[in-house]
Design goal:
The complex is a heterodimer of chains A (821) and B (289). With 821 residues, chain A is of the alpha+beta class. Chain A contains 14 helices and 35 strands. Chain A is 16% helix and 41% strand. The longest helix of chain B is centred in the last third of the chain and has 40 residues. The chains are: A alpha+beta (821), B mainly alpha (289).
Chain lengths: 821, 289
């Protein structure tokens, strides 16, 4: 505040009435508004000197309309003050125009700059900050020697507005010609170069990978280089000097001078501050002994843990309520090449969970999330339970897994901890809408899956947004038809907590499907099969042997109506199938879409009543009608999947499957239905009927992996049409994620499979399998579910089927998670 | 051939655009009006007309039920033009938008808390406004929603008790916490009764040697209930629960005595059997030095 001709006493502020305010220097802007904004309004009282004047300048400054603002007192009498605001008005920046960049670069940079356009003026600062943004962006992309020029032109659409034209000369991308190391004795230069993960020398064979030089990445790499050397015991390792110099227009060279120092070993380890656990036990957990190479990284992992289920000192305490536990290794003595350690522990109080809250659930109801929570009020705090809860919330499928964040808030005063689970909803509904061409006919499919349905609100019109949601129920409907040849409709509903009080899931589903050769009804040529079925199931989470187990019971009723239809053991007649299914499974996979750890096991027994043992029909001589009216069988299935992180993001999946369909009575023979069809994409294709089970096998066409004992055309036909009673399949898969975001998860796979089918248990040989190998890719899109494409090479010909059963390319869609069997 | 609206939208005649936007607003064609208002709001910055424009702009968003953006615009108006005749209305409307954005009690209540804050700010700024009564009513509604949420979520643990006994323990804690968070919660009677029920169920399903302490705690809660809610319709139920707790203690004690007797009897029997070579037995039992 400049006072002309008057001294304001800063120690004695005085109240004045504002006699008037004038604005000078403005030509485009409405003066009254500026004065109003300054709040120096005629007639108001003001304390001088006070914050009011600086606030006025700040308010005007924040408008971003002026290059300079001065506030002067033009006249000061005993009780009245007159202000003059002097501003320097500059043209306003209306937009940017970028030249000399690629389209994607323009888009990226415009995004970074956009917050400014329309809101600021053009001055020296605008140029500098724009240059900084562009320089930084291009440097990240590997352009180091850029030139930027500016021009301006008036914007016809905006009074006093100016378009800023930016001319960029990118130059060429810079690569690293050579990285030189000096001062290294124990480490070879090649090894050190390897530690620089993102800064690599140029080489003719490096087609992919980061050839470009990036300043930021080099900085990170240097830190990693030292960390790696320290990890090998060289705790004194340091970069003495490093320089990046320009070789030519497109390459730079890097010199790094390092000091290795001696290699250190662990000396005596002592513990301090541990009361809860004995030194002996902690030493065992630590697993580092006198004489080991001294590695801070290993020490860190053993003390603080790394990942979800690691065995480390911190986890022992954190799983037992010691939330504020802290451990610090102190290097007490260093002599020659030996480091003595004292591990200082602060145990703190044992915390009890108190308030458990959920935040961010804008669609899903509280109780759906809260009943998954394992850290309940009154329990001791446990990190393990916290992590398990995050997994279980992820398992619901309604939230973005990476954004489920638990926040414990300890209250040291009373030894309790409040835990807040922050979640973020993600779209979980799936739509399938397709018109396809299959078997020479056009076929239309519509399928809808709602993963967060609310049945109880179905009559509440307010809840429709666009459907009643939030109770974690699942509703799915699907229809597929091409008019008279093929129709299939199915419906299913499931509720994970029946009655809301126990984790007992309830499911009901029904389907009807029809397939025919299209001949008109009543025609003697008509070949037709119709299947109808209903299933009701109840499932329960178990607490024993551990809480990953689930037990499911279900009752199924199915009806098969055949009318002159080939490929089954009988051609005309009606057959009924009533069965009970018991399934026990254990699922400890850490993610439903891309698991990196854990396993999944499932054992299923399905059985019909043994009619033939109860009625007095002589099956040796009975007619087809009698023989097949009531389907009877018992079916045993096992599946196991293991996931393990190999290195970095690379995950290995191992899988084994086995299925056996047995009969009660030799005379009845094996059931015509509920058999296994092996091979292909496993999709509900045009010829899909629910009278059999489809098992995928890549490299081979749909349903072609038939028993080697099937040699006659009739046997081959039956094996392909209705399936085989025994199968085994093994899969080894390497998976690598390429996209992991809320919008999509994508990964590439390399696979090897082996599988086969048999007609009789006496033929069964688990090692006699048909093999294939190949590569593929999967993408999970929240609305469409999992989509996949595979290229597989079959190694074993299958005689008797078209093309020896080969099918190299395969495309697949799985609506439900856990598809792709 | 472009429509009249398109022509105006693309023209640079701001005054005409402004008039057209107001006309569209009055004709209740809010989505078209919005397009013009959005465009104009940048261009009118720092001009007298900006005040009215912002007022219309906020209302257009409100009519389009975009309460999230509307409340921001209303707040912007109230902050920018505090002396305007419409400032009070906009301050109120901003808070009202939050109120409308407050979701079902079973969902995240972030907007409910913000609505209460915004409504309270309005009452503090304009204590004499005729809108204060309505604002207070809204605050009461929102508080009731939060109370219902606290009650329902605490009760959840009681409902889950049948599946895992320790949920009853969690139920007592969470119900008490809800009463601390909302001291005059209207479900106090139900909650106090649920505390007794939870503690009773917890005690009843515990091991006999733990039952006495846990029943005693339940009796304590029952006594508190009888004292605090002498007129309650649940009084009889509380008294019955108290009696059942007392019976529970008695039978637990009985069971413990019985068990103790059995153990004593068994020990006596074992001792009697081994009395012949006691010395050998003792030797076996002493740990090695």
């Amino acid at each position: 505040l400049k006072v002309q001709g008057t001294d304001l006493d800063y120690f004695q502020p005085k109240e004045y009435i504002i006699g008037g305010t004038t604005l000078t220097g403005a030509s485009f802007i409405d003066k009254e508004v500026i004065i109003t904004l300054s709040k120096l309004i005629k007639g108001e009282t003001i304390l001088l000197p006070s914050e009011a004047t600086s606030t006025a300048i700040k308010t005007l400054w924040s408008q971003g309309l002026f290059d300079d603002i001065e506030l002067n007192i033009s006249k000061l009498t005993d009780d009245t003050v007159y202000f003059d605001i002097k501003v320097v008005e500059r043209p306003r920046l209306s937009s940017f125009e970028l030249n000399g960049l690629s389209k994607s670069q323009k888009t990226d940079i415009t995004e970074k700059l956009n917050s400014k356009s329309g809101k600021t003026i053009i001055n020296e600062n605008t140029y500098n900050s724009t240059t900084a943004v562009i320089d930084k962006y291009l440097a990240e992309k590997g352009y180091f020697f850029t030139k930027i020029d500016y021009k301006t032109k008036p914007d016809p659409n905006m009074e006093n507005g100016v378009v800023l034209q930016v001319f960029v000369e990118r130059g060429r991308k810079v690569k690293v010609q050579k990285i030189n190391f000096t001062g290294n004795k124990e480490f070879k230069a090649a090894q050190l170069r390897k530690y620089l993960k993102k800064t690599k020398q140029r080489a003719f064979y490096k087609i992919f990978g980061p050839g470009k030089y990036s300043q930021e990445k080099f900085k990170e790499d240097k830190e990693k280089l030292i960390a790696k050397m320290q990890d090998k015991g060289y705790r004194d390792a340091v970069i003495l000097r490093d320089s990046v110099y320009r070789n030519s227009d497109k390459t730079v060279g890097i010199d790094i001078d390092i000091y290795e120092g001696p290699k250190y070993y662990v000396g005596n380890i002592t513990w301090a501050g541990n009361a809860k656990y004995a030194t002996k036990d902690l030493t065992k957990v630590l697993g580092i002994e006198k004489g080991d190479i001294f590695s801070e990284e290993k020490l860190g992992v053993k003390l603080h843990g790394n990942g979800a289920e690691s065995e480390d000192v911190s986890s022992i305490y954190l799983n037992d309520g010691y939330l504020t536990f802290n451990v610090e290794p102190v290097q007490t003595k260093i002599y020659n090449d030996t480091v003595d350690l004292e591990i200082r522990i602060y145990e703190g109080p044992q915390y009890t969970n108190n308030r458990i809250t959920v935040k961010g659930n804008t669609i899903t109801n509280d109780r759906v999330v809260l009943r998954q929570v394992r850290t309940r009020p009154g329990d001791k705090f446990s990190k393990e339970q916290l992590i398990r809860t995050v997994r279980d919330i992820g398992q619901l499928g309604n939230f973005d897994e990476s954004k489920t964040v638990p926040t414990p808030k300890p209250n040291p005063a009373d030894g309790t901890v409040d835990i807040e689970y922050a979640v973020e909803e993600k779209p979980s509904d799936q739509v399938e809408l397709s018109g396809g061409f299959g078997g020479g006919r056009v076929i239309g499919t519509i399928g809808l899956t709602f993963n967060n349905f609310s049945l109880r609100n179905i009559l509440n019109p307010k809840a429709y947004k666009p459907l009643p949601k939030g109770d974690g129920q699942k509703l799915s409907i699907r229809g597929q038809t091409n008019a008279k040849y093929y129709q299939s409709y199915s419906f299913s509903f499931s509720e994970p907590w029946l009655g809301g009080k126990k984790p007992v899931s309830f499911g009901i589903s029904a389907f009807t499907s029809l397939s025919s050769n299209g001949a008109s009804a009543g025609s003697s040529n008509l070949q037709k099969i119709r299947l109808n079925g209903v299933t009701v199931s109840l499932g329960r989470m178990l607490k024993w042997p551990d809480n990953y187990f689930q037990l499911t019971h279900s009752i199924n009723a199915q009806q098969y109506i055949l009318n002159n239809y080939p490929g089954y053991l009988f051609t005309t007649g009606t057959s009924y199938n009533f069965n009970l299914t018991q399934e026990i499974s254990r699922d400890s996979r850490n993610s439903p879409i891309f698991p990196t750890e854990g396993s999944f096991f499932k054992f299923t027994i399905q059985a019909t009543p043994p009619y033939s043992l109860l009625n007095k029909v002589n099956y040796e001589t009975a007619s087809d009608k009698k023989r097949y009216t009531f389907t009877e069988y018992h079916k045993w299935k096992f599946e196991g999947q293991w996931f393990q992180r190999l290195a970095g993001k690379l995950v290995v999946k191992a899988q084994a499957q086995f299925g056996f369909l047995g009969s009660y009575n030799q005379a009845v023979g094996q059931s015509a239905f509920e058999r296994f069809k092996l091979g292909g994409d496993g999709m509900q294709g045009f010829d899909f009927l629910q009278g059999s089970e489809l098992i995928t096998m890549r490299g081979y066409a749909n349903n072609v992996v038939i028993p080697s004992s099937a040699t006659t055309p009739g046997q081959i036909n039956i094996a392909q049409q209705s399936g085989s009673p025994i199968y085994t399949k093994y899969v080894m898969e390497l998976r690598y994620p390429v996209i992991a975001s809320q919008q999509a998860t994508a990964f590439i796979v390399g696979f090897a499979e082996g599988g086969n089918t048999w007609n009789k248990f006496s033929d069964y040989n688990p090692f006699n399998v048909r093999r294939s190998a190949g590569i593929g890719a999967r993408i999970f899109l929240p609305i469409f579910g999992m989509l996949g494409i595979d290229y597989g090479i079959p190694f074993d010909k299958i005689p008797g089927v078209q093309d020896f059963g080969r099918q190299r390319f395969m495309f697949s869609i799985a609506q439900q998670l856990g598809g792709f069997n | 051939c472009k429509s009249r609206f398109e022509k105006i939208r693309l023209s640079n005649d701001v005054a005409k655009k402004y008039q057209e936007a107001i006309k569209l607003y009055n004709k209740k064609d809010y989505s078209k009006a919005l397009i013009l208002f959005e465009d104009l709001s940048q261009k009118y910055r720092g001009r007298t007309e900006a005040e009215d424009l912002n007022y219309y702009y906020a209302y257009t968003l409100f009519r389009l039920k975009d309460y999230t953006t509307a409340r921001y615009q209303f707040k912007y108006f109230a902050d920018t033009y505090p002396t305007s005749k419409n400032a009070e209305e906009c301050r109120y409307m901003g808070a009202y938008c939050y109120y409308l954005d407050s979701p079902e009690y079973t969902l995240d209540q972030e907007n409910t808390y913000k609505a209460i804050d915004a409504l309270q700010l309005f009452i503090n700024l304009y204590p004499k406004s005729e809108r204060v009564a309505q604002a207070s009513q809204y605050i009461t509604d929102l508080r009731a929603k939060l109370e219902l949420k606290a009650y329902t979520n605490a009760r959840l643990y009681y409902d889950l008790g049948g599946y895992d006994i320790s949920n009853y323990k969690s139920s007592v804690i969470s119900l008490k916490n809800a009463e601390i968070d909302f001291p005059d919660i209207k479900y106090a009677e139900e909650m106090d009764l649920l505390i007794i029920k939870s503690q009773y169920a917890y005690a009843k399903n515990s091991f006999p040697y733990r039952q006495e302490d846990r029943y005693t705690e339940a009796i304590g809660y029952a006594n508190e209930f009888i004292e605090n809610h002498p007129e309650s319709k649940y009084l009889e139920e509380a008294k019955t629960l108290k009696t059942e707790c007392e019976n529970g203690i008695a039978s637990a004690k009985e069971l413990m005595t019985l068990e103790a007797n059995q153990i004593a009897k068994y020990k006596a029997m074992v001792e009697k059997d081994n009395s012949k070579d006691t010395s050998a037995n003792i030797k076996n039992k002493t740990p090695n030095p």
